[in-house]
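Quick note —
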Amino acid sequence: MAFHPRTQYASPQSEINMVPLIDVMLVLLIIFIVAAPLLTHATKIDLPKVDSTVVNMKPETIQLGIKADGQLYWNGQFTRETELESLMQEAARQTPQPELHLQADAATPYENLARVMALASKKGLGKIGFVSRPEETAP
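Predicted structure written out below.
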């Protein structure tokens, strides 16, 4: 056989062969050098310069009062249900859309409250909240 006669009697190597590690590191270095410009690619755009101020548009709140006898008050003014439809439709077209705060008497039938909420939803008012007075505790 064609074996080298010294390899049978040679002692094991006690040091790590660094050549394969260096080859791997060089390949990784080349990959990073090629890939780095691809990651930072940006297109230069000449944007216009304008003076802009922050517009803080807070939605308006509409107070809708409902009395126990069915009377309706739009922001404190008496209104009929037919007028209420047009007021709600006009409010739904505003940007940003106002919040509708319902203030109902404690003795108001649920039917009246449900009818007003259904009308508001049908006209496009999506932000509806209930206003109540906190319960007073005895000292």
